[in-house]
Amino acid sequence: MKTNLDRRSFLAAAASATATATTAGAAGAASAPAIKGGSPVRSRPLPATGYFGTQFYGDQERRQLAEVVESRQPFRWYGPGKEPPRKVAAFEQHLASRMQVRHALAVTSGSAALQTAMAALEIGPGDEVILPAWTWYSCYNAIVLAGALPVFAEIDDSLNLDPADLEDKITPQTKAIMVVHILGSPCDLDRILAIARARHIRVLEDCAQSLGARYKGHPVGSLGDVGIYSFQINKTITSGEGGALVTNDPVLFERASRYHDLGLLRAPHAAAVGGGRLGGFAGSQFRMSEFTGGVLLAQLPKLDGIVTAVHAAARRVRQGIGDLPGIRLRPLADAEGEVGSHVFLSFANRERRDRFKAAMAAENIPAHAPGASEILPIQPHIEQKRTIHPAWPSFASGRGPSIRYGASCCPRTIAVLDRAAGVALGPTFTPADTDDIVTAIRKVYPEVTGS
Fold first, then answer.
1. Residue range 66-116, pLDDT digits in tens
2. What is the mean predicted confidence (pLDDT) over 407-433?
3. Of 5, 92, 118, 281, which residue is the least packed, with the fewest Cβ within 10 Å?
4. Domain of 18: which CATH number?
5. 271 and 181 co-located in one domain
6. Residue 382 domain-assigned?
7. What average pLDDT does range 244-252 have in this prediction?
């Protein structure tokens, strides 16, 4: 498949590829599960989903990179060339428009975006930030590096932050809630935003794993006080590494811009906020290069086509298995807004979950437990509250010395993940591929569950 397809031709090509799928079709559907000696649904394993964005690299990315090389000006603010290429600035403008926000700031990574968001929200020593117990290290790290105290809340069967447990974790020191939209599916933002706004608590949306998702028609990242995105290799579109922060608040944007650039406010960002209201302060250095900005300028127009294709594949699978007796699919806060990168099922216990995985592997349709995150409170260095200095403010004052992590602070999260497994979907999956997934699940699910 060509790598520089526009949205319409890409979707048409994916549909026409049905005839080339490797499948045993009706024979697989009619036989016993392969793990019990029947014929597998596929003669060869279902192809891996691959890294979404890289599958669509092509002439657009090459042209953007060549223009930066020819300019001899890879730094966004100045250089030896007569005129800067302004790739990063253009990307910021296009991203803000796509995400329906006033301001977008490009940075070097999703982790850098989280740290910049902490600075924008003035999170620091004495503050508490609630985050899900199951997410990526960057979320916890950003809070600790700001000197604040991470407070873990449970996830529910949606694999996202449980609003009820979140509410129980709020204290007078809670300054922000980090809402992480996990594995392509938005959180229940109606409930979470209502809880936060009633208590005047800031909301940071971490959209690193759900770039392109929507919640009730709004792009994720646009509903909280601040949103962040990642363009790392595993994300919906990618420049290998990279990130961005978005907000509608000019003061938050100015503070973020200053923090990501040594405390300075460059002229274009100053103009965006009407000249600026804040003075300088000590900041970090998370400026995006023009090379990265150019790749993302080429990738951003492909985002909607990728999401449309993945979402359609997930919808076909969910519809194809939705009538199985007793089936428990991952609850979705917005089924139409999810990316659809995975279809997850929940089982009675871990033993049945593992039997499902083994049975699906025998059909050459791999199934996996939820990944791309970790149960953070049980990681040894987190449970032991290790930091780069023994007097680090996160754990040296307030509730820091007394707070306890470990399995005892997230038993429901552990139980939910022990019961869950699913299949990953990709943007180049054909209808025949999704038919095979449906056939395999319909073959093995009754055997595994006793339905």
1. 999 999 999 999 999 888 889 999 999 999 999 999 999 999 999 999 999
2. 98
3. 281
4. 3.90.1150.10
5. yes
6. no
7. 98
pTM: 0.93
Q: Residues with Cβ < 8 Å from 359, sequence gap 6 or more?
A: 33, 34, 35, 443, 444, 447, 448
Residue 183 shares a structural domain with residue 224: yes
Which phi and psi angles does 374 have, rounded to 5°? -135, 150
Structure tokens at 107: 């940075």
Give the whole-angstrom CA distance, residue 231 versus residue 103: 18
Strands 128-132 and 134-135, sheet pairing: unpaired
- Expressed in angstroms, the distance from the first to the final Cα of the chain is 41
How confident is the model over 346-369, as pLDDT tens digits?
A: 999 999 999 999 999 999 999 999
